[in-house]
Sequence to fold (263 residues):
Amino acid sequence: MLADHQEYEVVVTAVAPAGAAVHADGHDGFIDQAKHPSWRSDTPRPVVGDRMRAVVLDSSRTPARFSALPGDLRIARSLRHTEPLSRLCPPPGGGRTVKWAAVEKELGVELPADYKRLVETYGGGVFAGALWLLEPGCPDPLYDMVIQTAERGEILAELWESGEDKPSELHEGNAGLVPWGYAEGGGHYLYWLVRPGVEPEEWTIILNEGRGPLWETYPMSCSQFLLEVVAGTTTSFYFTDLDDIVTPDDRTRFEPNSRILSQ
Fold:
């Protein structure tokens, strides 16, 4: 059965002015004209027999709606880990409604789709008893992603000016950091490595230990990193000992800011 955000090799079976009928993994689908690369580029229009990578946008429709746009493929790859995370660590309900355009304007960057989905689903709060998901507009500035972007930028700049080693990744062009996570207790911060010309869904995660100069990098989305921490499959040195700190129930529990900060 087809599933939203899943990627398939599809074959074009018919072409019409509105788009192309496709066949994928034993199922019929449809790529609207505006969801094929030829809509806004020099890519040739689809013809019967063409093979291409496409992602399911809406599996509930008949036929299912696909997209072959590179941007939609990137977004789907980042969203692919939000659903397994929700199954393993159920959201408490509520989530957040965020005016993302205003947040992104203030930050000066577009944020990854999976991060937005996490905030809208969970809100800010703590995964696995240890990893705090920062959110824009949090009542506590320590866990507000926008405020921490400015504060952490100033703190890191002072550390580097005083002689602490700057990660080699940040010597490349105008690379910058945007924090999205904080390890309660250890004080570790998790950032996106933001580089000009690199799409948000392709950003690298970079972790800075809380009480030292060491950094870790992970070429994955924040939802994948969270999923691996919750599932106990992470390779991060700073989260491999969680079983000694939290109970099995806490490992798969999310505590929202609305509950924590009201205590």
